[in-house]
Specification:
The chain contains eleven helices and twelve strands. The protein is α/β, with parallel strands linked by helices. 47% of the residues are buried. It binds ligand PBG.
Length: 326
């Protein structure tokens, strides 16, 4: 008996395939990460991240205008400061690089959503995401509770500069509560928090650390970022951040953690973001350069998979390319 069901019937031509496609991407869900550096007239390609740039304020505004013009609603800002110190004071300085960039962007492009990454690692001389204390054996301890106050201070500085959405990526325990408290106390009750809730200690951040100069001098981030093997714990982290007042949750990296995204989608009602990180982007570009895969198709396939798994918001270095093609 020939089969009654022939799934191929609906795959016969592009029109039919488009009609029954279950997952569609739109520009509204894209966020483009941007790296701001001191100086002026600087637009320098980042060697580990082809087609991504270190941008001085003037060039940042130019770039953001083009991005917004493509229909992308939001950018995620990272700052590379002039100098670093043990506390990471550049993170919360009123004239810190991200605060200056946020003011410039909000002034030039009021409709663009400016999301500010909140972490100390780009600003600390030691490269860790919190305050450190040397241990007797030469290793360092990253101090949780003393770091919280600095994170809250940074959130307030970012909100004061006009940040539309504060995105803490440090992975200290209790940081969402500390940041919410700090913001509310300073009168920024309307500023939302997008928590990097399930952020894994990942090899895929390699190219970013070159871009941000934020590799820890001693040790690694395994003492605060999540163990890559833990899915249940990721849900627990997310629940804790919700309880502490997070408005949105993030899973990071994206493609290697689609199961976590899917579980989070089923369990939580808040908007979910996924961050397709630097290594996910760089590996596609590298393979495409070698002629081993088609870059555009790999871009669509990876972004579609991330959205299909449950992400509402896609933070990706492909945002520009995807928006231009959509
Ligand atoms: C800062 C931070 C990192 C990334 C985003 N925020 C680096 C890290 O945790 O080491 C990685 C982003 C990327 O790889 O694209 N803590």
């Amino acid at each position: 008996m020939f089969p009654t069901h022939r799934p191929r019937r609906l795959r016969q031509n592009p029109g039919l395939r488009a009609m029954v496609r279950e997952t569609r991407l739109s520009r509204d869900m894209l966020v483009q990460p941007l790296f701001v550096v001191p100086g002026s007239g600087v637009k320098r390609e980042i060697s580990s991240l082809p087609r991504q740039y270190h941008l001085s304020l003037d060039k940042l505004v130019e770039e953001a205008r083009a991005i917004h013009g493509l229909g992308i609603p939001a950018v995620l800002l990272f700052g590379i400061p002039e100098s670093k110190d043990a506390q990471g004071s550049g993170a919360w300085a009123a004239d810190g690089i991200v605060q200056k960039a946020t003011r410039a962007l909000k002034q030039a492009l009021p409709g663009l959503q400016v999301i500010t990454d909140l972490c100390l690692c780009e600003y600390t001389s030691h490269g860790h995401c919190g305050l450190i204390q040397p241990r007797g054996d030469g290793s360092v301890e990253v101090l949780n509770d003393p770091t919280l106050e600095l994170l809250a201070r940074t959130a307030v500085a970012q909100a004061e500069a006009g940040s539309d959405l504060i995105a803490p990526s440090d992975m200290m325990d209790g940081r969402v509560a500390a940041i919410r408290g700090g913001l509310d106390q300073a009168g920024h009750t309307a500023t939302p928090i997008l928590s990097y809730a399930a952020k894994f200690a990942s090899a895929f951040y390699g190219p970013f650390r070159e871009a941000a100069g934020s590799t820890p001098q001693a040790g690694d981030r395994a003492g605060y970022q999540m163990d890559m093997a833990n899915g249940r714990e990721a849900l627990r982290e997310m629940q804790l951040d919700l309880d502490e007042g997070a408005d949105m949750l993030m899973v990071k990296p994206a493609l290697p953690y689609l199961d976590v995204l899917r579980m989070a989608r089923e369990r939580f009602d808040v908007p979910l973001a996924a961050y397709q990180v630097s290594g996910e982007y760089a590996q596609i570009l590298a393979a495409a350069r070698a002629g081993w895969l088609d870059e555009t198709r790999a871009m669509w396939e990876s972004l579609t998979a991330i959205h299909r798994a449950g992400a509402d918001v896609l933070i990706t270095y492909f945002a520009r390319d995807a928006a231009a093609a959509l």
